[in-house]
Amino acid sequence: MDIYMNFFNKFDYDVRKTKDARWIDQKCTCDVLWIIADCILEYIDKNQSSEFTASDIWHSNYARENVIEIFSKPDPKSEAKNEYDKYFGQPIKLFSYSKLLNATKKGNTNYYSINNREILEKIALRPTNALEFLCKYIIKVLEDSELLDIFNNFFEVQTKEAYKNVRDKFIEFTINNTNINGETECGRIFTKVINPLAFKFKKLGTVKGKISKHIITLNDIQYNRLNWRDNLSGKEKNITRTNHESNLEINTLKEVAITNYMIMKAKKAVRKFNNLFYEGKSEVKQINEIVNATQAHHIFSQSDYPNIADYIENLIMLTPNQHFSMAHPDNNTQYIDRDFQYICLISKFSKIYENLILNQDKSENQFYNFEDYKFVLNTGLNTEEFSKISLQNFASILDVIDKFYSDCIQNNKYNFLIKDNKVIF
């Protein structure tokens, strides 16, 4: 059983018992949970504090810098307290209901502490982890509350009648068992419950209080969705050209901010993992390199392969000398040395192999992802050959890498590094 279900099965999330409607709310989308988890961990580590409030998190510099740019929200120091109370408070409340956080009320303020850091770190690492957590959490709450069958029936039948039945029963359940008494608010919460599951199962969900016409997409369940773009012209008919151009500019800035944030997070994660398990040494073993690895290097360059720039499987920790003299000769970061790229690939291979194979029965300790690793290699080498390789078949992965770098094996100027960095099957 996976790390999430192992944790969830320790608790009873029956809403009929808790009477708490805020087990999920409008701001509780996977991308928001992902960034809020990261903000909590950053605040705890930076302040060396075991306790925090929602206000502490959204007033932190780390949260302000990332939320302002990525989610196009006003500065938390401005008059936007109500919006930020929801934006940070609702996901934190979800983490509390799920028992990832402990909650204590002091006066009128809720104080929180981390109950399961391992899962919180997993959520903060990848948006896909946050989505997986959210879906399994929703299923567990519905199951404990004896609501899961009506949702499963809708996903199986997918008719207007089945949709009306699941929506009506959810609203009735919420009104009867919580302090929410309005159908409109229940309907908004219903959307956050059903659509992540619809995406997971590739089914129809809900849009504007009705059954959706199309299968729910990832864009449909994200808070930071780009829903102003028209399919044909890129401009909705009810917005002016000036506003449309402003939206384009905002969208471009937002995409840059998201990209920078995700790359920063990936580098931070790889650095932390390397410090924890490899004492901060270079991932490329080299006898005469005795200084610590401080450089997170893209094996396939960020400029040439931006869509894998934030993948931890594409990052490797190097010493400054290895980074600026070997990976990028003469400190030319626009150029990657192919011979050393091969060394980086086999070195990273060994770390991913070690992590996934030695921990194959301990999913909670698995930092890397095999499918993501194949995607990185396919992208960086412009091929689909890695897609054909079965799960955890590392020997085949290495064979294909060697095939693409056959010119870099026998005559590699860093040949002396191959023996110490290559796994032999």
Describe this structure in words.
Keywords: Endonuclease, Hydrolase, Nuclease. With 425 residues, this protein is mainly α. It has 3 domains: 1-124, Arc Repressor Mutant, subunit A, CATH 1.10.10; 147-224, no CATH class; 252-421, no CATH class. Helices cover 54% and strands 7% of the residues. It has 17 helices and 6 strands. It has helices spanning 3-8, 15-18, 30-47, 54-59, 61-70, 81-97, 117-125, 127-144, 148-157, 160-177, 183-201, 241-278, 320-327, 338-358, 370-380, 394-404, 418-421, and strands spanning 101-106, 109-114, 204-207, 210-215, 295-298, 315-318. The strands form 3 sheets. The protein has a two-stranded antiparallel sheet with strand order 1-2. The chain has a two-stranded antiparallel sheet with strand order 3-4. Strand 1 (101-106) and strand 2 form a beta hairpin. Helix 9 runs antiparallel to helix 10. It is elongated, with a radius of gyration of 24 Å. The model is unreliable at 226-248 (pLDDT under 50).
